[in-house]
Description:
Strand content: 5-15%
Bound molecules: pyridoxal-5'-phosphate, zinc ion
Largest sheet: 6 strands, mixed
CATH architecture of the domain at 81-107 and 211-384: 3-Layer(aba) Sandwich
Structural class: alpha/beta
Helix content: 25-40%
Number of helices: 14
CATH topology of the domain at 81-107 and 211-384: Rossmann fold
Mean pLDDT: 96
Distance between the termini: 73 Å
Low-confidence stretches: none
CATH class of the domain at 81-107 and 211-384: Alpha Beta
Shape: globular
Amino acid sequence: xxxxxxxxxxxxxxxxxxxxxxxxxxxxxxxxxxxxxxxxxxxxxxxxxxxxxxxxxxxxxxxxxxxxxxxxxxxxxxxxxxxxxxxxxxxxxxxxxxxxxxxxxxxxxxxxxxxxxxxxxxxxxxxxxxxxxxxxxxxxxxxxxxxxxxxxxxxxxxxxxxxxxxxxxxxxxxxxxxxxxxxxxxxxxxxxxxxxxxxxxxxxxxxxxxxxxxxxxxxxxxxxxxxxxxxxxxxxxxxxxxxxxxxxxxxxxxxxxxxxxxxxxxxxxxxxxxxxxxxxxxxxxxxxxxxxxxxxxxxxxxxxxxxxxxxxxxxxxxxxxxxxxxxxxxxxxxxxxxxxxxxxxxxxxxxxxxxxxxxxxxxxxxxxxxxxxxxxxxxxxxxxxxxxxxxxxxxxxxxxxxxxxxxxxxxxxxxxx
Length: 417
Ligand SMILES: Cc1ncc(COP(=O)(O)O)c(C=O)c1O
Ligand SMILES: [Zn+2]
């Protein structure tokens, strides 16, 4: 069976099926479409992965690009899975791991969906790509567009971090700063797609775009020797990442590569936590947050496109959605840096702070295997760390030993011969 017959778009609700075209919602019921693969016709041997390419394209049978020549490659994926024993000791988990996606080419997990979306844009014959973004997706799309020789335009809320803007500009994309929230920029993006025909990768190519993110689940299966972890904690904004990770585990289970799907936990910042609030209230309808207020700007989406489906997924896997405060996020960033040598942006702090809470409350048993998805690098938000009062600020001294001894007075005995 060729890829074209094996891969379809299928309505998430009524299951109507469509060819792989640029459509995102079902004609019949207006629900979102997902890419579905005819798994019955597919046999994958675990050993085949030993000799495959070392990037997300090792999973090409389960990605929606029909012609390999369209794949744009920046070396995305196969990020380290590290045992976090020091952090685990501190938060009370005996088997804690970090999936360190800060080490992707543009320093966040967004390289995964962007690499698939820009490849799909090439397959559709586009010459321009765009996205609406809180910063990380924009950098990832811009870098991939540069490699693919496409023009790139980014719609972003006006208050994203300056480091993220520098990064996007360095890849040659144009940033259009929207005076409003992410949701305002998202509404404008949808209008631009209708009126100007733009390919906004996370709007008009959303079914394809999200496929890249499920490679995190595939990698975890491989990295744990085909014995998936008990729990995975995931920072949530629109909800696309959490849903994609779930689909990844389900697809590997349906292919008999693993036996079970982990419990999935969403993590949000209190200042923008519509999904955590709905989970707590036990309802399935979200109340959008009009004015998000948190240091975790990359996940500040008040009206998450996949919010309802995140609730469904965490309930189905016996997980939950936790909210954590800005001070807990900042403390987690510092703790992760000091205990494990990993510097993260606030979204990473959100996952770690949520892990601490879930273990403390006994929702996650201490001896379970638990993975925190660390999705963005601290170098994208370096300013924040300077607001943490427990850190020693750099002191400037004259270049002589007397000044150094003076500075070290009363400090650790290890500093003195
Ligand atoms: C660093 C980081 N982590 C997690 C997320 C959440 O992604 P999603 O919108 O797929 O829920 C984002 C989204 O922008 C992000 O930038
Ligand atoms: Zn439908």
